[in-house]
Write a structure and sequence with these properties.
9 helices, 25% strand, 390 residues, 4-stranded antiparallel β-sheet, binds FE2/S2 (inorganic) cluster, 5-stranded antiparallel β-sheet, binds fe (ii) ion
């Protein structure tokens, strides 16, 4: 069924992509309230391993405690608020987090255990001054945080629909083959506006359009064009004949996952989308995550990770073969996204107009607007039933 828009719909105002005060409103309404991707659980292997996850102006310490559990705390001392971490990642090898300012120290479960040079003080109970917790959830080896003190969205409910399509992949046991991070000059919404349409594909992604011919039509699905009908399998994007994966020659050089659901892997790729922070795409031989983090109104950090079969020899992987297509697509998208940001800045009072195939851009922008109004929508209501990176 076609999801195409039938009438010209305005985009969000360009000002929403350009104005720092508006950016702060989006942090408050969206980024500080949603489940956000923080990384693979394997980043925290040993007791005391920590990483700081920065979201807007917020810093969160994520660590593994003495019971083997992941914990997350605001990176702010309960004495006078100092940041606790002198590095962005490392290990609290002593089992304590010690503030660099006046040396208060905390256990890995956040309890305040020492306040040096504090004479007796009436009305001060250390039990009331533990680190402030941030909610944390895990799914398939992926770690998510939520900065809302009382998250409005149950993580299971937030993940379940999108993750269902990836149920036959051994997500918990995937191994990381490669990670890279790029800082780009566009607003975080430009990333999703671009991801959610394929009108740009023929002009921007020649290699990808060769690998996935439907993308070369400028559509997410063939039935986005008027008059095209057919079963989902006939109209959805799929690899060209003979190709098995998104690699430089379309072939798999890594062990393929056993027991994949034929329907899920049929097209050769399966997407799961978790606006605002990450999407995942699963293939026969690897899973790739692309995560975004807003830095300021004009800058976004984009990280890509390639996850492979648990039995793969990660030291022997041909990384160029594995990573070429995914990196190329992200960088091609980033290039035109920077053009979009730069061009909007020259007409700050204007807005654009959506084309028929941009129905999921519409869904995303409608969701952003609803969240800014205070509506507690956990996720956009996607029109298409297949997510594509385009
Ligand atoms: S601010 Fe941390 S001990 Fe004073
Ligand atoms: Fe693209």
């Amino acid at each position: 069924m076609s999801h195409a828009l039938h009438s010209a719909v305005p985009t969000l105002p360009f000002e929403w992509y350009l104005d720092q005060a508006h950016f702060q409103r989006e942090l408050d309404a969206i980024w500080y309230r949603d489940w956000l991707y923080a990384g693979r659980e394997s980043l925290w292997l040993r007791e005391g391993d920590f990483r700081v996850v920065t979201i807007g102006t917020r810093r969160v310490i994520v660590l593994r405690d003495g019971n083997g559990e992941l914990q997350a705390f605001h990176d702010s001392c309960r004495h006078r608020g100092s940041s606790l971490c002198t590095a962005e990642a490392g290990r609290f090898a002593t089992g304590r987090i010690t503030c660099p300012y006046h040396q208060w120290s905390y256990a890995l479960d956040g309890a305040l255990i020492s306040t040096p040079r504090r004479p007796a003080l009436e009305g001060f109970d250390p039990a009331d001054h533990g680190l402030q917790r941030v909610s944390i959830a895990r799914w398939g080896g992926f770690v998510f945080l939520n900065l809302d003190p009382a998250p409005g969205h149950d993580p299971e409910a937030a993940f379940a629909v999108e993750m269902a399509g990836l149920a036959s992949w051994p997500l918990d046991r995937l191994r990381s083959a490669h990670t890279e991070t790029h800082v780009k000059a566009f607003n975080w919404k430009v990333f999703w506006d671009n991801y959610l349409e394929c009108v740009h594909c023929p002009g921007v992604h020649p290699q990808l359009c060769d690998l996935v011919p439907v993308y070369g039509t400028g559509q997410l699905r063939l039935d986005d064009a008027p008059g095209v009908q057919g079963a989902a399998a006939e109209v959805e994007p799929r690899l060209r004949d003979g190709a098995r994966s998104w690699t430089s020659d379309g072939q798999c050089r890594l062990p393929e996952f056993d027991g994949l659901d034929p329907q899920a892997i049929g097209p050769g790729m399966r997407f799961a989308t978790f606006v605002p922070s990450v999407f995942m795409v699963a293939h026969r031989d690897y899973v790739r995550t692309v995560s975004v983090r807003p830095i300021d109104v004009d800058h976004t950090e984009v990280s890509i990770e390639w996850l492979v079969h648990p039995d793969a020899d990660t030291a022997a992987i041909d990384l160029a073969h594995l990573t070429d297509v995914g990196r190329t697509v992200v960088l091609e998208d980033a290039r035109v996204s920077e053009f979009a940001q730069r061009g909007m800045r020259t007409r700050p009072g204007a807005n654009g107009v959506l084309m028929p195939q941009e129905y999921d851009v519409r869904a995303f922008q409608t969701w952003v607007a609803a969240r800014l109004r205070g509506d507690a929508l956990a996720a956009p209501v996607w029109e298409g039933d297949v997510r594509v990176e385009s």
